[in-house]
């Protein structure tokens, strides 16, 4: 990314509330890769983004983590 760039990405949290409802009772077909916040940071760092450029915010529902990468 260029200096001054911003990238936003997100993940569904592995420890999210009502996780089993989505795939169990509701029978949602898409197989979503749920990750912990730690796994999200590791994945971004593995792609070459320094940890100090990454901030993570968990949504009020606890379902998602939104990662902002600012250079």
UniProtKB/TrEMBL annotation:
Name this polypeptide is given: Uncharacterized protein
